[in-house]
Amino acid sequence: MISQLVDLFKLRIGFIMALTALVTMVVTPGEMASAWDAVILSLTVLLASASAGAFNQYYEWKYDALMPRTSNRPFVTGVFKRDYRWLLGIVALLVFSVGWAAVTLNEMAALYIFLGAFFYAIVYTVWLKRRSWTNIVIGGAAGSFAVLAGAAAIDPNLGPIPILLAIVLFLWTPSHFWSLAIAQHEAYENAGVPMLPVVVGDQLAAKAVLWNTLLLVGCSLLPYFYGMGWVYLLGAVSGGGYFIYRNIQMVYAPTRERAMSSFFASLIQLIVLLGFAVVDVLLVS
Hints:
Blueprint: H1 2-8, H2 11-27, H3 35-64, H4 74-77, H5 84-104, H6 107-128, H7 135-139, H8 141-152, H9 160-183, H10 185-191, H11 196-200, H12 202-221, H13 230-252, H14 256-284
């Protein structure tokens, strides 16, 4: 049952969103947040993300049955009965998380938390996923709003560092998911999802991933020029360089194995970037 709930609420994605929000809270210039504020930020981002993830599965359950990767989700298998009570619970979870953030953090942090869930649940899932290859590009803004929420919890007037990190998360999402889409090309095509590899082919999609990653890594270097230190720069260069290397391999041979290597490299790049950003700030303080 616990594993089914983890799957339903997409808690793995939620933890990544909460982590990015926390890191941004740490690196945003201003008064240090209290431990309680950090806990509230983490929980509200996680709960809002969970509500969006559950709505995605509630809305997509028929289509999830068409893909091997998603065919064992609880609404598809019938482990959880899909009815209006789940939808009410999903909405209540979002309202609770946004309201809690508004009362205990501030209104701007709450707004960004809401927008993150809205972009994933409505903009990506309902409006774009089955209509346009831009689905994951525009819908990927959900991750950027988690960054902005973390920054706004410290200072609602956003400075250059959180804005740049939000852009980094925005650019990270297409490279991350297009790599997965190349590996899962046939499954997405059979399910009628117009992911970029389905629309233009794996070779062109791999090149698009590389160009996007180059832009991503370039943007990830910019916070160094706005106050981040050499440790952050080292993380941006090393993690980004490894991601580019895996992208280049995928361009030469856009196989499933190379695509999955690129997909996992995206996770490594993000973890290294966030981890080194925190270490950088802690060394300075």
